[in-house]
Amino acid sequence: MLQAFREWRERRRVERMGYTRQEWEAAIGHWPVAARYQGAERQALFEMTRRFLVRKSVAPAEGATLTDAMCLTIATMACVPILHLGLDWYDGWYTVIVYDDAFVPNRAYMDEAGVVHERGPALLGEAWHQGPVILSWQAVRSAGGASNVVIHEMAHKLDMRHQGANGAPPLHAGMSAARWHDTFSRCWEALQEDYRHHRHMPVDAYALTGPGEFFAVCSEAFFEAPAALYRDWPDLYRLLAQFYRQGEQP
Ligand SMILES: [Zn+2]
């Protein structure tokens, strides 16, 4: 009863928000990943994007510009990873803050030399535990290759649902945590070796920052450049496919 009421209220709010299919298509037309979703799946992505915008507040940082098309783009990119998981996977936080460009968090941080600075280095994206996601629009619009800052931060959000952003998101029934850990560790070690020997790297070296970053960077590659990730790391690809409930092959 309550659930049915919530769904009815959400549908009404979606209708009142008023984004049309044409506006959505125009907004996401430049993003090649969206072209992979056709037919019923494309309609489902459109529906989920509108529900995302009803449930979340996408707001400009002070002085930043944010258009409807930008909101639709960000929401669509955010919904791709959870299209087959459900919007509830983003429960527990509400706000996406969008800067025009890279932003400097207003808090102290310690650099690698142990020096404490009053303000941190400039960032392109950030996800707070049970708090907002913060994005640079410049970074969002330069998605491509194997990178996508929205998918990166959303992967952190999914990861945080189980013991913080440590590269071990909550797995579905039937998935083995040991296998997940072994496969990700093996690829992590291989990436370290590739880095050390200046070889081709299946994902960006930023992944070596920590296990949480490794999962987020692999998630970016999984959606932005699936064929390359599958070629280089088929076992890891298959685990991500199971987690995101996508096809076993790109
Ligand atoms: Zn990250």
UniProtKB/TrEMBL annotation:
Q: Which Pfam families does the entry mention?
A: Peptidase_M90
Concerning InterPro entries, the annotation shows:
MetalloPept_cat_dom_sf (IPR024079), MtfA_fam (IPR010384), MtfA_N (IPR042252)
Q: Which GO terms describe its cellular component?
A: cytosol
Q: Which SUPFAM superfamilies does this chain map to?
A: Metalloproteases ('zincins'), catalytic domain
PANTHER family in the cross-refs: MTFA PEPTIDASE, PROTEIN MTFA
Give the source's domain of life in one word: Bacteria
Q: What is this protein called?
A: Zn-dependent hydrolase
**Species:** Alcanivorax hongdengensis A-11-3
Gene Ontology terms for molecular function = aminopeptidase activity; metallopeptidase activity
